[in-house]
Every structure is written in structure tokens, then in C-alpha cells.
Amino acid sequence: MRILITAGGTSEKIDDVRSITNHSSGRLGVAIANAFYDETTTIDYVTTNSAQKPSNTNINLHLISDTKNLSATLESLLSQNHYDAVIHSMAVSDFTPATSLSEEQLLTVLNRLLKNYQGNSLNMTDLKNEIRELEELPVTEKKISSETDHLFLILKKNPKIIQLIKQLQPETILVGFKLLVDVSFNELYTVAMNSIKKNQADFILANDLTKVGEKQHLGYLIAQDGSYTTGTTKQEIAELIKAAIVTASKK
After folding, report:
1. Which of 52, 116, 122, 231 is 20 to 30 A from residue 180's alpha carbon, by CA?
2. pLDDT of 197-226, one tens digit each?
3. What is the pTM of this model?
């Protein structure tokens, strides 16, 4: 068996010294890798420098930084290898910085807008066009000056990496992850089922951030048919995922 695991969280670059990231530790990914590891399983493990990593040296580590880097790495791995399963637990940034503006730059843009649309209403289409133009402005500084009291970032939406997986390997068993914050089980379940359909996943591990900690991790492994199993620790969740994939691979 050969499996691909992603874990940790991407970091989106603002300039050469700053970035937007998340708090994903990668501990669940490590637990999953440990549950799967044996002499008959090959594991490709995609993660980041800051995330925790499996200690077993026989696991193939692939380090990435941002969402663009992750996309290129997955395309390469999925094109070169056949995977029985892909477990996509990485917390991928929904947005990435397009450009930044100091207070002075922002005021210049606003003044231009006021002049251009003086006497006319600025509708949503016009505003969207103006924002797209701002997105095209490159961040030329290696380190953005800290002289401004406020820095304004324009973020643009990242592509959904999980949708790439089934496009490149339709037959692989795909386990996706969905994290919400302080919601009911019904809402979490509904969002997870929608994610299964949208991303052609075989399973979604649904969890709520308020029930995730170092010692506790309540998660629901939801299948395409709507059935689910429950784990209360990272180790339990890892074993649930392993059992589900082993069973599905025999069908």
C-alpha cells in the first residue's frame, strides 16, 4: 500500500520576513502516519518546516511553504505515483496576500476613486474592478516599511487544493478534513456531507475547534453514505481512518 498524507498548515507570504499562517501543529498528521507505518506501506508525507513531523526516517518527507508550493508538490507526486489513499489533513489557507498598501497609498487610491466617480454612484461592479486592479500591484519591497501606522492587505482567494486530488487520481480513496468553530453536530455533519459531494471525497473527518486540544480531539469520520464513527483522541481518529481505508481498499 502507498499513501499520501498532508499535515500542518500553509504560510502565505506578505514579504520576505512576514507571513500569514495558522495554528495547525501537525500532531494529528503524525498520529495518522504512525498508525499506517509498517514494512509493507510506503508513506509520502507533505508538511511544513514549522509542523511536527514523524520520527520514522523511512517515511518520505516533502516540505512545502505556501498553497502554491503545496499545489505544485501534490501535482508532481500524484503524477509520478499511484496512491491507494490520500489523507489531506493539512490546514490550507483560504486566502493569500495579493498586495499591501500603506495609509498614504490607500488615501491616494481613495482620492482617485472619488475623482473618477465624482457625481456618479460607485456600484459593486466598479468597486470589484478597482480591487482587481489593486491586486495586480506587486509587492516590490523585500521588507515592507514599518513607518506606516496601519498596513492594509488585499487578500485573494486560493484555489481549493483538495479538488486537485480526485482530478489527478480518480480511483484513490480520499479522506478530507473539515474544521468549524463552536457549531452544533447537525451543522458540522451537514457541512461535512456537502464537502464530500463537492470534493468527491470518500470520507471527511469533521471536527470542532472548541473540542480540539493537546489531550482531547473529538472528531467524526463521515463516509459517503452518511454513516460515521467517532474518535475522542488523535490516536483514536488515526486508527479510525486506517480501518476505514483498509476496508474500502478491499471492496
Report:
1. 52
2. 999 999 999 999 999 987 899 999 999 999
3. 0.86
